[in-house]
UniProtKB/TrEMBL annotation:
Protein name: Phosphoinositide phospholipase C
Cofactor: Ca(2+)
Residue intervals of the EF-hand domain: 154-189
Gene: LOC114475390
Catalytic reactions on record: a 1,2-diacyl-sn-glycero-3-phospho-(1D-myo-inositol) + H2O = 1D-myo-inositol 1-phosphate + a 1,2-diacyl-sn-glycerol + H(+); a 1,2-diacyl-sn-glycero-3-phospho-(1D-myo-inositol-4,5-bisphosphate) + H2O = 1D-myo-inositol 1,4,5-trisphosphate + a 1,2-diacyl-sn-glycerol + H(+)
GO MF, any single term: phosphatidylinositol-4,5-bisphosphate phospholipase C activity
Gene3D superfamilies reported for this sequence: C2 domain, EF-hand, Phosphatidylinositol (PI) phosphodiesterase, Pleckstrin-homology domain (PH domain)/Phosphotyrosine-binding domain (PTB)
Ranges of residues in domain PI-PLC Y-box: 501-618
């Protein structure tokens, strides 16, 4: 009865899906002038450059989810994008493209749509300021509503999307040919007989086609979760529902949510149970149980680790810091485009250390680009503007501006002027208390501050006696990575530094690194050494990992990709985190394993860009060695068991219409050398829609505090390299146990709903 009530409710909401989604997705749409204007449509200019400005007709579809646009000359050809793909809306001349046409179109008619992942921005100019505001306000409301959407509405959205895709002739019905096409789109390889059996079963009107409510029934049969039903029935006293008591047993014994689970059980029923009748009975139907397991609370990532939960009052050197290499580059290192967009995107991903390579420019204005290459050039002042505007949008904790300085004294003075004028009070110009410091301040102390990391004249202490010349000679930057030449063979010339720029450097003085012994005796807490990945590995081999860890317990170290990585590829950052290196700089523009691990590590602690290192890496006397984790005090290895149960609606990776995914799942452990491991499930032939494995993978982990878990889905190919389907990466310390869904991410790190894996997780101490 409960399930039947739920189905009736569902059908009523789906029968006119377009109207329903408009009402649920945006209540009061009829009264909202901005949305009504968007539904009618508007002609706006799409801008790609100063010379490419084309008129396009933009319109919000009736589902309030899709923006449709086309050229008047393009015939029937059109483009669409989903509101869910839009990450932000920038008003005015807030992109390089719109800045370039600022003299032609006023700021109040311009806006930029920023998409998730690495998709290019969409720069638009409306015919009037009112039209621009109508779209800006309307889109912001739609995005806000989408973010507040419940699991129930999301499910309706997915079902409606499939119906629209299947109904090719737009008659509101789906014939069997359309069903077969739908199955291919859904990554299902189902024999014709079985498909026809489901179709006939759903065709209750016996009309030979499925109308809306029959399609809901078909979808439910197609997406039947036998794997979840097994768990549901195991804990249900009557195999029909979970009483509150049943749910409490499940939460306590299976999900390991602790002993006092009564409040949580009540909360979950109230939040996820779709049937009001079941709520009155303090029970959860199968649909409610499925919604809970598909929610954030039922996901593999512990929600309690999402917000700021770590101590933020320790010295900067006690944190891993999300860091970007050659932040200005959007592509490769030799011919790629330089753009302030690189800084905006990195900062909006929580990056807290960005790099600026400064060279002498025309008209006395310093420029930023990858020196001695064909990469394009941008103005230093535009970079500083972007950093000033976006530094604290997603995190209030300090940003480090890592400056590689190749400018003459005059242009260095201009750099200092821009930093002070544009950043104002955000720029840290002196020690926090105005007196000589004895140690690095904390992220908490430095909230809202931008620190400059660069060469400095003399010591920090000397800057308090006021005796300084206008400029002095100093060493050239140690961060020149041209072809990764050995420093010993590199001819170095002294460089004159401007006092004005030098004075902007407080807690992050760039220095040449001699040796760990020299550093232990002579180095100051505010000195920062930088190494290419290959140099860092050389020091690890020669001095030992525990020596590097000890060094990093006292001061900051920056590691960046070798100059040979002209394709902007990344190294695996885990090796450097194992040594306690804080500023491990990656090419944020390049998707792959390196950025997956970076995104995974910094997905915790409010995505603020700072993650506290384990205590054994912060205390110098501990002498932790990642090569021999079993020798440290408090050593307690764990066993991680991952049962990969099933997959749901995995995306197609091959554009060929008849191609169906053959998925396999690989679980990788990234951590200290002893923990590096990977295991795979078998592959399931021709089923990307609902593959089932029940394969068990087991790992022994010796340093769980440093371990990252990366779960990858691939399309198996026996003749060539497997194709990437999706991934999810998180710290072991953030994993929830029990039955969990893993919501997969694309290669770009953006979500690809409803693609997921269903797993069972156990973490136990090694006996």
């Amino acid at each position: 009865l409960l399930c039947r009530l739920w189905r009736v409710d569902w059908i009523e909401r789906i029968v006119n899906r377009e109207e329903y989604m408009a009402v649920v997705f945006f209540p009061g749409i009829q009264e909202d002038d901005n949305l009504q204007s968007m539904v009618v449509g508007t002609v706006m200019r799409k801008i790609k450059s100063r010379t490419w400005k084309k008129q396009r007709y933009f319109k919000l579809q009736d589902d309030c989810m899709t923006i449709w646009y086309k050229s008047k000359k393009a015939g029937n050809a059109h483009s669409t994008f989903s509101v869910s793909d839009v990450e932000a809306i920038r008003e005015g001349h807030q992109s390089e493209v719109l800045l370039s046409i600022a003299d032609e179109f006023p700021a109040n008619r311009c806006f930029t749509l920023v998409f998730r992942g690495r998709r290019a921005n969409l720069d638009l100019v409306a015919d009037s300021a009112d039209e621009a505001q109508s779209w800006i306000r309307g889109l912001k409301k739609l995005i806000e509503n989408l973010e507040n959407m419940g699991e129930r509405e999301k499910l309706d959205q997915w079902i409606g999307d499939w119906f629209k895709k299947a109904d090719k002739n737009n008659d509101g019905r789906m014939n069997f040919k359309e069903v077969q096409d739908l199955l291919k789109m859904m990554n299902v390889d189902m024999n014709e007989h079985h498909a026809h059996r489901l179709f006939t079963k759903a065709d209750e009107s016996q009309s030979g086609s499925l109308k809306d409510d029959e399609f809901v029934l078909f979808y439910k049969m197609l997406t039947q979760r036998d794997d979840v039903m097994r768990v549901f029935q195991e804990y249900s006293s009557d195999a029909q529902k979970l009483s509150q008591s049943d749910l409490e047993v499940f939460l306590r014994e299976e999900q390991l949510e602790g002993d006092d689970v009564e409040p949580l059980a009540k909360q979950l029923i109230e939040r996820y149970e779709p049937s009001d009748t079941a709520k009155l009975l303090k029970a959860m139907t199968f649909d409610g149980f499925l919604m809970y397991l598909g929610s954030a609370e039922g996901s593999i990532f512990n929600p309690q680790r999402r917000g700021i939960f770590q101590d933020m009052s320790q010295p900067l050197c006690h944190y891993f810091i999300s860091s970007s290499h050659n932040t200005y580059l959007m592509e490769d290192q030799l011919r790629g485009q330089s753009s302030v967009e690189g800084y905006i995107r990195a900062l909006n991903r929580g990056c807290r250390c960005v790099e600026v390579d400064c060279w002498d420019g025309a008209n006395g204005e310093p420029i930023v680009y990858h020196g001695h290459t064909f990469t394009s050039k941008i103005l230093f002042k535009d970079v500083v503007n972007a950093v000033g505007n976006y530094a604290f949008k997603v995190s209030e904790y300090p940003v480090i501006l890592s400056i590689e300085n190749h400018c003459n004294v005059e242009q260095q003075r201009v750099m200092a002027q821009h930093l002070k004028r544009i950043l104002g009070d955000k720029l840290l110009k002196s020690t926090l208390d105005g007196r000589a410091a004895v140690g690095l301040p904390s992220p908490e102390d430095l909230k809202g501050k931008i620190l400059v990391k660069a060469k400095k004249i003399g010591n920090l202490e000397e800057s308090f006696n006021g005796v300084m010349e206008d400029s002095l000679s100093g060493e050239v930057s140690d961060e020149e990575d041209a072809a990764d030449i050995e420093e010993d063979n590199l001819h170095r010339e002294s460089q004159r530094l401007s006092k004005e720029l030098s004075d902007c450097v407080v807690y992050c003085k760039s220095v040449h690194f001699s040796s760990f012994k020299h550093s232990r005796i002579h180095s100051k807490f505010y000195e920062v050494a930088s190494f290419t990945e290959s140099k860092a590995r050389k020091h690890l081999r020669e001095a030992g990992e525990s020596t590097f860890v000890h060094h990093n317990s006292r001061q900051l170290t920056r590691v960046y990709p070798t100059g040979f990585r002209t394709d902007s590829s990344n190294f695996n950052p885990q090796e450097m985190w194992n040594a306690g290196c804080q500023i491990v700089a990656l090419n944020f523009q390049t998707a792959g394993e390196g950025m997956d691990l970076n995104d995974g590590l910094f997905s915790q602690n409010g995505r603020c860009g700072y993650v506290l290192k384990p205590s054994f890496m912060r205390e110098p006397e501990k002498r932790f060695n990642p090569e021999t984790p079993q020798r440290r005090d408090g050593y307690q290895p764990v066993v991680l068991t991952v049962q990969v149960i099933s997959g749901q609606q995995l995306p197609k990776v091959n554009i060929k219409e008849d191609s169906i995914v053959d998925p396999l799942v690989r679980v990788e452990i990234h951590g200290v050398p002893l923990d590096q491991a990977k295991q795979e499930t078998r592959y399931i032939e021709n089923n990307g829609f609902n593959p089932v494995w029940y394969d068990m993978l087991r790992f022994t982990i010796h340093s769980p505090e440093l371990a990252m878990v990366r779960i990858v889905v691939e399309d198996y190919d026996k003749t060539s390299k497997n194709d990437f389907v999706g991934q999810y990466t998180l710290p072991l310390s953030c994993m929830q146990q029990g039955y969990r869904h893993i919501h997969l991410l694309s290669k770009d790190g953006t979500s690809i709903p409803p693609a997921s894996l269903f797993v069972h997780i156990r973490i136990s101490e090694l006996e």
